[in-house]
Write a structure and sequence with these properties.
Elements (H helix, E strand, L loop, with lengths): L2 H13 L21 E2 L5 H7 L5 E4 L2 E4 L2 E5 L12 E5 L5 E5 L1 E9 L1 E4 L1 E8 L9 E7 L2 E3 L2 E3 L2 E2 L8 H6 L3 E6 L6 E3 L2 E3 L4 E5 L2 E2 L2 E2 L4 E3 L2 E7 H5 L10 E3 L10 E3 L2 E7 L5 E4 L4 E3 L2 E5 L3 E5 L4 E3 L2 E5 L2 E3 L5 E3 L2 E3 L6 E3 L14 E3 L2 E3 L8 E3 L4 E6 L2 E4 L3 E6 L5 E6 L1 E5 L3 E4 L7 E3 L5 E3 L2 E3 L75 E4 L4 E4 L5 E3 L3 E4 L7 E4 L12 E9 L2 E11 L6 E6 L5 E4 L3 E15 L2 E9 L4 E9 L28
Parallel strand pairs: 1-2, 2-5, 3-6, 4-7, 5-8, 6-9, 7-10, 8-11, 9-12, 9-13, 10-14, 11-15, 12-16, 14-17, 15-20, 16-21, 17-22, 20-23, 21-24, 22-25, 23-26, 24-27, 25-28, 26-29, 27-30, 28-31, 29-32, 30-33, 31-34, 32-35, 33-36, 34-37, 35-38, 36-39, 37-40, 38-41, 39-42, 40-43, 42-44, 47-52
Antiparallel strand pairs: 18-19, 45-46, 48-58, 49-52, 50-51, 51-58, 52-57, 53-56, 53-58, 54-55, 54-57
Amino acid sequence: MRIKWILLLASTLLLSGLPVGTEQRAQAAACGSASNEVTVLSDLPSKVSSAARGSTIIVCNNTYSNAGTITLSNTTAATSASDTITIRAETQGGVELTGKLTFKLSGSSYLKLDGFYFNKVLHEGTDSLRQVVVFSNCDYCTLSNNYFYSSGNKDTTVGSDPALTNGASTHIVRFESGTEFSVIENNTFENSISQSVGIVNGTSPNLNTNNTVRWNYFVNIPSTQTVWGSATTNGMEPIQIGQSGSTSNFNIAEFNLMQNVIGDASEMISVKSSQNTVRFNTFRDSDSRVTIRLGTGSLIEGNFFFNSNGVRAYGDNHIIKNNYIQNPQFSGINLADGNATSHPSSTGTVVMNNTIVDQSGPYNSLYIGNNASNIKVYNNLVRKSTTGEAYTQSATGTSSIDFQKNLSDVTGSATAKSANITSGITTAATNLVASGELFRTPSSGIVLSHGGVELTGVIEKTGTYSTDMDGQSRGTTIDIGADEYSSGSIVRKPLTVYDVGPTGNWWLNKRSDGRYAIDGGKDSYLEAEWFMNKSGAFDLVNDSSRSGGAYMSIPETAGDHVSSIWTEYGLDVTNGGSFDVWMLASAADNGSDSFQLSVDNGTAVDAVITYNSGFVWRKAYTGLSLSTGQHSLKVIDREDGAMVDKIMLTKNTSHAVPAGNGDTALYPKHPQIVAPGF
């Protein structure tokens, strides 16, 4: 312990009126002693039913197994958000729920479930309820800040196709029986074995309408065949809105991040009802796509797709606009070949101001399918170099397909359009400008003749055509594609793990089996606070100014060279070799400017950081050997007072000092449970 800290502690105690050496700490009563606290989940229904409006009920930290169905209801009149009854964990993530459990929020309004860790909550087909959370006739209810890991319905024994009947196509969270204006927000769904969120249509007058799914993280969802076997080719999409097309539901999926999602390789968001909105979401490294399977009049707007397969639509009178689709394998936008039964052909749909760049597979980038009619294709931009056409109109049964002011930037083996498109496509270089992970409109703009076609009135849900993918205002002469060149402030951007999921990122430390996919061909960033394990006084310090909202610190009182103080990160390395280790770090003084590093519990080496008043990047170690395969990397105490915010691993020995907080950190991938073991 350094003298300056002893003096500071002494002065603090003297100012408080307490003699030095007196403990200044109030002893908190154990959770469960207050009337609004529960230690047994079966006590929750009575607590909720008798709770005063605007109150909070606390579930004490513990692990609760096989609690069965917990029905939560309060029929006291409620009229505003201030009347919300909140049921929350004592501390976020401190309540772990496992086994068979269903929270059913029923026959109420303004209830909120917050801060729980659902760890392998798994049902079977014989259970009366096969969902983890059910909203049933629950208006203005909220599910927030929860982590659902490897949960769903594991039944493999009921029905002619058990996975479809009970497993892959049932829901973890389900809206039913007349739920309106309710919200699912800031949750993480990882390794789901069923559909993560399902909003069923309901039956008039008990429709499920005007609900919102937002700011959630859906990650590491494997293929249905991986989990359920080769015969299962449907289900496990993160969000399903409706099951038949005739009902208008007006539900919204917005500001969600989906990453490494496969499912049935067809649907990430599945829309099967009418008048819904899918907007401002980000899709990364996912084999599936946004699909309008049934219904009419839905809006797909302002979504970002990276290495993901864009939009597929059936049905009538949809609007698909301002979407940015980069490096899809299949068609970026596909008004798919229809049939007379479950996949209706497109009629009256508008596809405008979308950007599709660098499609990787030998497919057509923007496709208008069989029997489509009265389709408007305006102001789109396609850049393509692989085999296939930038714009394609099927030769089978299509009619009144109106192409206007579209741009085709084709090179290599790509062609601009199919032969039956006679106008409305201009072939020219776009000169898009790389900006971070996006390709943007250059300062000169991208306009054709007098700019793009502007649609107003009935064709726009908002009645105006005013903004681009970033939320920036479009000029009077609008640019082609999703991006309008503008010096105005960016309102929306592609989402990362930092933007979504439970607040405070507590869920990132709930599991000790995660591994980071380290590719020696790329720079790999790790958030120090997203560790696999830790030991001793290596503290997580929440700080909104730091990358990821927190950093790791060894207190000045911990002592130097304490080998039992460490954080550990699981690595799964490809293209292994010799890596330099950079750290975004800080030190309390020049006697606090180092850690040690150890690979696979081998000999520890010194990693030197910089004594500075703030966090700065420094190459802390050169030549750390990481062969291809799985490894453990430990950061160990060498000098107390050292702090680390972020770690970067690179094989580039001449790498420049990273700017700012560096690139987006990797997210650790956890093992997937697989039927029939579960």
